[in-house]
Amino acid sequence: MKIAWLVTRGDSIGGAQIHVRDLALQAHRDGHDVLVLTGIAGALTDQLDAAGIRTRVCQGMLREISPQKDWAAIQALRTILREEAPDLLSTHSSKAGVIGRIAANREHIPVLFTAHGWAFTSGVPQPKRLIYRVIERALAPLASRIICVSEYDRTLGIAAGMGAGRLVTIHNGMPDLPANRRAVPDHGQTIRAVMTARFDRQKDHETLFRALLDVPNLQLDLIGDGPDRPRIEQLLQRLGLSDRVNILGQRTDVADLLAAANLFVLSSHWEGFPRSTLEAMRAGLPVIVSDVGGAAEALITGETGLVVPPADRDALVVALRTLANDPETRVRMGQAGRQRYEDDFTFDRMYAKTTTLYDDVLVRFRSGQ
Q: What is the pLDDT at residue 63?
């Protein structure tokens, strides 16, 4: 099968990029003809090129809504699809989903859209939320199937007016790592929490920092970068937390940093189904997540980790204290989280479900269904 993946940006490595990269790499190993298309070249395309996977840039595809540039991107993608003639196009992230569905339909190519968290989910500011809700509802019929990475997102899509039969939930999955790269949650004199997240308005670093003021025995490592980094650094200085919070930036050794931590926390205003939580569970860490989007679907509350209401400083203080002060609970939850990862969130499980859906879409398309 010749499969083309389309993701809006290739100049950074976030959840959607990792998802596309891992699927493309495995499909390539399985003998499929693989092509990855992006609006901007960069870190993602460099990794794929090094692995022998072809990439192409679709000019004009930007994250922001721009009718003139979006129309140009649709035409550019149509040209690429005519030249490449893939059997199927799989689109990822909101803008790629819009551009890709329109272009693929014009070229009579079956197309899927993976919603890595709807752009109209609760917590996304208006008017963006309303605009994307209207757009996604209008474009839903253009996709043979829409993959939701959480059951929360599937329910949200149905509530927005998308056909239930078109939406399918396939939770994210992560490739496994050797046992020597797992955490020991009760080790060390200094208790270290870690948060892997982009520095932007989606993530709620401020509530986490203010909670940290009341958990004095906890250190925090922040993995990630983004436009809000200067503001976050200034906030840490104002709160007097600069000596307890380490901003590590964008890293390629995330698995090793998780293995050195005692617990994981993800404070957010909105989410789809965060891969960073799965990385932490894979490492055997207990996790704390905000109850937004499908974030809590990865957990068994009280067994593998703790769920707190979004932007609730007091609840986050209690959760952080619970894990910071109880090494036995950290170990128990970390082991349970690791088992849950093995049972439900491995990459092989996600890949098998995804490629089975690809096959089904292609068969139905060719038979005219």
A: 65
